[in-house]
Amino acid sequence: MGRLASLISGIIFGVGLVISEMINPEKVLAFLDLFGNWDPSLAFVMIGALIVSSPLFHIIKNRRKPLFAEKFDYSNNKNINKKLIFGSALFGIGWGLGGLCPGPAISSIALLNFQSIIFVVSMFVGFYLVKSFNPSN
Amino acid sequence: MNIINFTPISALTGGVIIGFSVIVFFLLNGRLIGVSGIANKFVIEKNNRFDNFLFLIGLIIGPILYKFFTKQEINIVISDSFILLAFAGLLVGIGTKISGGCTSGHGISGVGRFSLRSIVATITFMTVGVLTVFLKSFLWVD
Fold first, then answer.
1. Cβ contacts of residue A37 below 8 Å, gap of 6+?
2. What is the pLDDT of residues B12-54, one digit of tens each?
């Protein structure tokens, strides 16, 4: 059942990316073009996601356990350090260059365009590079 | 600043659906969605590998089902510079791995549980993203 839940969550998430148009790099770049022709839509994607997920998260986390797993398992890392800022900044540069972040990039493979595949393969190379230079990461 | 192509209703609707997906995954599997985390754990860790794989496959099936049921094309506009996309992908992979999250992991799941760490990360990547687009418009005509 947990397996099915993973698949279904992914499908719902992917549909959300399409309906919100977050899957479209042009739309994302227009959101980041604050000083040019600005399209504020993607702020509403975050607001929409948060008004559903935040209150329900705070209710559900008080349950003894999730429905299909033994325990809740989410990060409780509170470190605010150079790594967090440096990594987030690198991500911001990549996001601003291509208009793709990990979710939309992977979903857009469905459209079978070569560009998304190049991006996703490079992203996985990036994961591996960090892992091989710093195995504890 | 000029405001263009603003689509608040579809953005809010899509956002609510994404939030719902986060809650389904959390209530059923006990984990919070962060796509960069799920993607890098899928290749690096043995733990939950098949679950992570199925989630990623779901991300790809989502748009296919959408097209099938609505009969609507999904149009995207993406750079045709392979060098730029390869470089951007590399930075996104390295950056999200180092900082432990992306737009979903920090921006939605982290901000939603009021994690100060995720709020700092989100402000950082948003600000740097805006600056990158700003500088890009000076350096080359896209």
1. A30, B2, B3, B4
2. 999 999 999 999 999 999 999 999 999 999 999 999 999 999 9
Residue to test with chain B: of A21, A29, A77, A88, most B Cβ within 10 A:
A88
Report chain A's C-alpha Rg in angstroms.
Answer: 17
Query: Measured between alpha carbons, how far is B91 from B68 in angstroms, rounded to an integer?
Result: 33
DSSP H or E run through A90: helix A82-98
Residues A22 and B63: their CA atoms lie apart, in Å, by 12
Binding-face residues of A in 29-48 toward B, CB within 8 A: 29-30, 32-48
Q: How far apart are CA A15 and CA A18, in angstroms?
A: 5
pLDDT for res A1: 79
pLDDT score for A2: 79
Q: Mean pLDDT across chain A, nearest whole number?
A: 96
Q: Rounded CA gap, B41 and B35, in Å?
A: 10
Rounded to whole angstroms, the Cα distance separating B66 from A51 reads 24
CA B90/CA A94 separation, integer angstroms = 8
| ipTM of predicted complex | 0.96
Kindly determine whether residue B33 and residue A19, on different chains, have CB atoms separated by under 8 Å: no
Cβ contact, residue pair B64, A35, below 8 Å: no
Among chain B residues, CA nearest to A95: B129
- Higher per-residue confidence, B140 vs B99: B99
Residues 74-103 of A with CB under 8 A from B: 74-75, 77-80, 83-103
A127 touches chain B (CB under 8 A): yes
Chain A touched by B3 (CB under 8 Å): yes
Chain A CB within 8 Å of residue B45 CB? no
